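Repro case for the chain-ordering regression, as requested:
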Amino acid sequence: MTSLLKWVRLIGSRTTLYGLLILTSVFMILPFIWMLSTSFKPEYEIFAQPPILVSRNMSLDGYRYIINNGAIRALWNTVFVSSTFTVFSLFFCALGGYGFAKYRFPGRGPLFAFLLGTMIIPGAVTMVPSYILMLKLGWIDSYYPLIVPGAANAFGIFFMRQYISTISDELLDAARIDGCSEFATFWRVVFPICAPGLITLGLLYFMGSWNEYLWPLIILKTPAKFTLPLLMTSMQGPPGYSAYREWMALAVVSVVPLLIIFVVFQRRFTEGITAGAVRG
Amino acid sequence: MARETTARDPLKIRRKGLWREIVGNRWAYVFISPFYILFFVFGLFPVLFSVFLSFHTWKGLGPMEFVGLKNFAHLFGPGGKVFWESIRNGVLLFFMYVPLMTFLAIVLAVVLNSKLVRFFQGFRTMIYAPRVTSMVAAGFTFRLMLEAQGGLFNLILAAVGLPEAPWLEHVWWARVSLCLLVVWGWLGQNMVYMLAGLQTIPQELTEAALIDGASPVQAFFRITIPLLRPVIIFAVILSTMGSFGLFAEVMTLTWGGRPMRATLTTLVHIYGVAFGNYRFGRASAQAYVYFAIVFVLSLLQVRYFGREE
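-- result from build under test --
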């Protein structure tokens, strides 16, 4: 009996709580550290026992190899696709969100419900016919399929609508009285005010596009056009030989930019994720 | 004069008013139209075309051949074995990681949310960090760490005196490895959902219970968790879709299902049918069956968890 009480008190004790948090955090951070560490090792140290954290024989060969095999190009491709997609999406989603938030038009309710309903459709169902559509459009092996279809997406419009609905109507009326056309009202008044929301949504989009794998895998065929995730898997050797150090170098290149952005904008990231969960 | 004539036809008044409203708000329609245009072209059309395709055989080039329900019948014959294996894997994986991960997410959120620990920002950042990582990069890293000979995990196990494990070699250990990777990647996201959900629970409720003599553990199970139910359902449904739809993780960690298709998920399988075997009709049919299964499972979960006690 008393030992059970001791257990309960132990579980509630502050040390255990910290222990849980620290253990979890270590598990989360460990792969990053290992990724970084391995990318600088000479090959014979990768599976050294005991494990080596900071190699005494640091070598840049891993990085040299990936640079010689298209890493810079892939990095640029990824930056380009992610940025373009983010910019387009933010514009169209803000526009759509504004339309739903600040106009009372016939059919608004059903149209919005329809929009929400489209979020149910899973990617697997559209995977094959979308590919065929891209084939017919001649968009295979180009970046259009990675940017255009998602440009006005339901979640973004939902998110921006929530955000824009908090803008006071008087502000908009004032702009109209001053002679702004409807679009100018949006562009000059609403869009700038949305900046915080746009940053949050933009971060989500940027990160999602950067890390996307399945769709680029289906669409892109020329290695010179590959994004970073694609380059990583195209460097796979057959089972047996594995270019671990090179993979880790590429992984570092792929992960570090996003990590930096994440750390700088942390609050915005987590804000964005919860917008769907709680309000929804 | 005009008023007299329209007063006689109430339908005309309504139509005139409606039209005026539509025209008056024409810009709203313009603003929301990009979504609908893009959706109809890139969303609805593919969905409908997919239905059409599932009744045909097509290799991407050449003629399409109408085959009626053959693609669906194929699934229920010997040829459909691998598809159902992938469904089985999805179910297995779900039970292996979702309850644990969701529970851990709740616990972490409650701990962080309580005033008992400091460094809230720091911990949340560290636990959420994996979410911004490409699962391809993570998959390769985990493969490195789970390597049987000299991989970091086994070295740690050996260091504390535990036996080493055949992480990626053995059927069940491979599944565990995949679960490890998925939990690593998604725990932070789920924790953030729970944190958001906790904001909706008034502090006074838990405080009142504690004053009334309940232990923190009791308060946790009797108050916090039931009140978190909507968020929990939301998170679990997303995880359900996730456990059947793991793709990058499987391709990088287990070479697409090794060993012996133990970690083959349905999405990877359908991808193989479509872009490996070029059987677009069959892949479309399978995609719909897959969607139906996940949809039904999600409905069941909402029913099961939504029941009041």
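Ordering looks correct now. The two ends of chain A are 45 Å apart (CA to CA).
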